[in-house]
Amino acid sequence: MATLSPQLLTAAAQQNLRPGRKKGLSPAASLHLAGEILAVASGLKPALLYDYNSVGVNKIENYLQQIQGIGLTKHRLHLLNIADNVLILNLEKTALWLEMLLLTNKVPFIDVSASRTCPGHCESEYVESIKGHIAEVLAHVKTLPNITSQPVTTSEIFSADWNLCTIFGVLLGYPASYTFTTEQGFDNCLSLTPLRVFTVQASCCRISKDLRVRIYSFSVPENLYLAMKEALDAWSANLKDVFSAQNDFANLCISTEVVSLAAVTL
Asked: What is the spatial distance between Cα 80 and Cα 27, in angstroms, rounded to a whole number?
């Protein structure tokens, strides 16, 4: 694969992703964003949530078109707007991931409602409700490939019934997602709860010889880790298989650590 110009990638981000008169992305953030987008295009993850700043869909669309012109990827990318949160999707990878979750009947959801004394697995009836929400997103995604042949496309979807924390966890490709009831607000029971944090990183010399891209970062409660270990190991093994089939990244590293935080915002 051809080596890219870090200077052009940085300029594209700083030119297009500036919120009003505020300062744009730093060179380091610009290159890491390009690496995250390449990970999506390469199929290493179904989507990423754009959370670098608060620019709108149009600016992100212009940015994606520019970095595709620079040569980052020729793969079609899709911008999905959910309640003013913008996700950058690999449509094929997203559809396959959502279908797999529904067909295998192994949707891993962790209930962290504030009313609980500790995290636990979701009750089956609540899981069925969430699966219905996933099916709604999948139906939307599967209509999109026939819309246009443009390299960057956009759409919007939202339901007031969705828990966005859960939907985002699913779309981002996490092997387990948090969910909670909102009768007591949006608090959760994760305060000072030991969490096993998984971090997936890889080097991307196509963008910069020193660039390490954080492809995934998620957690599961330590009290559920052993019960979930088989599924987590299967997810890691699948990721390694996908990683070996691409040539944009090298030196995959999957690390874990246990942390306890005074407060956890989902």
From this structure: 26
